[in-house]
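BUG-439 | component: ligand-complex export | severity: low

The export step for zinc ion jobs runs without errors, but we want the raw record kept on the ticket for reference. Input record follows.
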Amino acid sequence: MDARSVSESERTANLPQADALPVSQIESVVEDVLASTPFVDVHTHLFSPVFGSLGLWGIDELLTYHYLEAEFFRSSDMPPERYWKLSKREQADAIWQVLFVENTPISEATRGIIAVLQAFGLPTESLDLEEARSFFQAQQLESHVQRVLEMAGVSTVVMTNDPLNPEEQLIWMNGVKSHPQFQAVLRLDRILRDWGGNWQQLVKQGYAVDAQASGRTVSEVRRFLSDWYGRMHPVYMAVSLPDTFQFPADTIQSKMLAEAVIPSCREFDLPLSLMIGVRLQVNPRLRLAGDAVGRADLRVLENLCRTFPDNRFLVSVLSRENQHELCVYARKFNNLMPFGCWWFLNNPSIVEEITRERLEMLGASFIPQHSDARVLEQVIYKWQNTRTILARILGNTYRLLSNDGRGVRRQDIQRDVTRLFRSNFEKWTRLSSGDTAAV
Ligand code: HDL
Ligand code: ZN
């Protein structure tokens, strides 16, 4: 039958769901489902309260976020060397004065501060930070964490844990009481990016490794990973890699990946998170704000996914120019899970572009976002922005589907949002929905 001859009533009557939403209601239902579904934040630099001062929170930490420091140095005559000599409080005062008093906070990171202050009912146009400081100083951390995660609509925060960070190592060695809303990650940058500078730390921990990664080094690194798996119970192992990353290669990094880390991930049934595209310290004067981005050769993903079909790879790439090919690779390898609009990509204009092309090419089989939060209260604005953008994009996607001839119900939208922001990650990491339930 010619499609044109099907009458409107026959076409509608063919819709399998009598309860399909009117197109005009779709976006508001998407907004409501996004607002009422707690998300899993799959990559952050937050810590559960038991980690003490490693966990950052409050207005002075929010304002001295390295994203804001980079913007401060563009609008201030203060040389970085002088800024680094200031106290944390003085640094926050300087940033507030330059970016929020002398200039309008119109960047993504400065608007985020305004959104956080607004969320707590704090003034957003003060000439100083006294009222904000008093508010945060009055908070009790555990209840503040609960309140912030509830405001952000986040049920689970995935941390970044470094077994070779001396301060963090001590806390793990003394035994860490797990927190129902925080999951650990075994982060391996020091081993995989700077073997020369870190192999002796493994020796200090009792592992018989050497500078050339010869002899028993591989089996000892496997033992190191096994011991830390037992301490942390991580949901994945992770490493951030430069734009120049190559695999395979005749390097200690490649050997450690192929012979120790990737086999260990299989042994413990863990994904390996690869975050590719950082150009470290292009301007060391800015310290943590001194990193930049480079387009990577994503044939490394082809090689890794094809060589290790029984491993699962959780991948985020930093260059906007790598995003489309990441989608193509995800279509070729179902052991590749793209996630997030990372770091310099976490801006509404780019998040929209990336998320639309992922939906168009991958359906709901990817993880749209992570916060990368370093300071607790950042999750409030980062996830508020994600929900706003996703409401618009998903609303448009479902309208297109309706126009193509398939009505959409609320339960369809709920199923997709749950998959995008919870169950894709739960399945990838073998977490149960109970492990990530909102408390
Ligand atoms: O390596 C990483 O996990 C990056 O996210 C860096 O921590 C980076 O400094 C950052 O905070 N980006 O948002
Ligand atoms: Zn990060």
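Assignee comment: Attached the raw record above. Residues 26-51+152-436 form a domain with the TIM Barrel fold (CATH 3.20.20.140).
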